[in-house]
Structure formats: structure tokens, C-alpha cells
Amino acid sequence: MRPSDTGGSYGWPLKPFDRQHPVRGYLNDPRIPDAAHKSFHFGVDICGADGTAVFAVEGGVAHLQSPTVVAVVSSIAPRTFGYWHILPAVIHHQAVARHQLLGHIAPGWGHVHFAEKGRGPHRNPLRRGALEPFEDFQPPTVAKLAFSRRGKAVPRTAVTETVDILVEAFDTPALPAPAPFKGMPVAPVRLRWRVLHRGTLVVPWRTPINLGPAKLPDSQFERVYAPGTRQNHPNHPGRLRFYLAHAWDSRRHADGRYLLEGSMRYCGYFSASSVSARSRSSPASRTRARPRRRIHHRRLQSSS
Ligand SMILES: [Zn+2]
Predict the structure, then answer these.
(1) What would the pLDDT profile of 203-214 be if each residue is shown by its tens digit?
(2) Running DSSP on this structure, what letter comes out for residue 63?
(3) Residues within 5 Å of ion ligand 1 by Cβ?
């Protein structure tokens, strides 16, 4: 997408405008206030102490959408910026200039939720060519590989037939967020995976998770996030579990030892009943060796 299609780049809504600020919530993070309400986060949470002044990133007309939400309909491009959890310093339908004061972060929030919307779904303000400057050199962490079938965990030493492939993975904010959200996980932009068998590619790269460009429809929440996912709360880090695949058919592959590689690092091994293969010095060797036994159906074993 060319910058001209979406209105071009803009600075930060907090001072200094031309310097990167910590962001503790990313687009498409899980938001789970209760079991009945699961959604993708529709903006970014920019850290700022309560009372911090919040400014318009682009000129336009202010709309007071609630006592603590100011939206500015841009006069430059077909887009609207949302500034949430602020006590407004502008009135409804007031014309505002770029860098004009909009309000102050409301007590107890510790951040401004900042969102950008065009004609379609909410966009990621951290995409290239939007909120600038922004650099993120933190690679995502792929923490744990798991399998399940019809919602029930399948032991990684007994994977058969069709299974869902799950991975616990997260990104680390580009700049550390202050307490009580210090060190908390955020959604990675992209997760991909492939499978190798004796060094040969048997399942090419697949990218089932792309949380980067725009907010996903909430109807997809439970296809993207797996059970066990939790959102961040003060002093309680969340947990991000993703489906890499739904109903993946392990029977299409011959018995043997396989490596599932995800993103930029190894995710884990799985194999048929070959115990000796797992005793080599490899990540798989961390698994306890199990007695060899004859199997009559395909079994996959894994470790991470
Ligand atoms: Zn937010």
C-alpha cells in the first residue's frame, strides 16, 4: 500500500512528537474481559503517566465519542484517529490543528489507546510509513510447541492422525514498558512454520498468522488464538497461544523424524517411534527417552 493511499506518516501523540515512546499493547493483542467477549485489540497502547498531555497527530475535526474518547476526523486524508482514555481539552466538532492539545490521560489508565481507521478495518499505526519514528529490533519469541485434537491436548509423544498445531509465541515491546506492565508479551506481527525431514523440506513455509497490517475480524478470534490465551493485566503477564494449523493430517507423512521450524528459530521435533534419533545432542534430546515399542499406526513425537 502506497503512503498516499492512507495519508502518509505522522508523529507521536505524546511529546516529544519526533521520538519513539514505549508501546505496551500492539494491534491484534488478545482482549478478553470475560469468556463471552473476546476481541482483537484495535490500536496500540502508548505508555504515558496519568495526566500526560495528548496531542493531535493530524489536523481535522474533533468528535467527543464518550467522556474519555476523542476522535479526530482528518482534514488531510480519508481517515480518523482515535485517542482513548483521555480527559478532553476540546469540544465536540471543534476544528483542531496538528499538534494541538486534545486532552490528558485519565486517572488510572497509564496510557493512551491510539487507533487509526480508514474506510476498512483499523490499521496498524506501527506499520511502515505511519507512526514515525518507530523501530523494533526485538525478534519474536517462539516458546512452546503443542498439539491438540478437538480442543483436547494431545501428548507430544503420541501425535497421530489429524491434529491442531499450537505454538506459544510473543513479541517483546520495542522499548520496555514501565511497571506494572514491564516485560509483558505483545502479539508478534507474523508467525510462519515449515517441516523438515532429514534436512528435506516436506511442508513449505506457511504463514497462518499475519497480525501486522490491520485488525482482524473478531469472528476469527478463536481460529487465531488457542485456548489458554490470556491478556495482560497489571503485574500479571498474559499468554499468547496461536494455532499454526487446524486439523493438520500427520498421516500424509511417512513415519520418521521431523523438525518443525517456526519463524526464525527451531520450534521442535516430532518423529515416529525412533528412540535413537532423539538421543542425539539436539533440542529433541531434552525429552526423556521412552521405551521402544511396536506401533501399528503412525505416531509422531515431538519436543520443543
Ligand atoms: Zn488499547
Answers:
(1) 899 988 889 899
(2) E
(3) 25, 45, 113
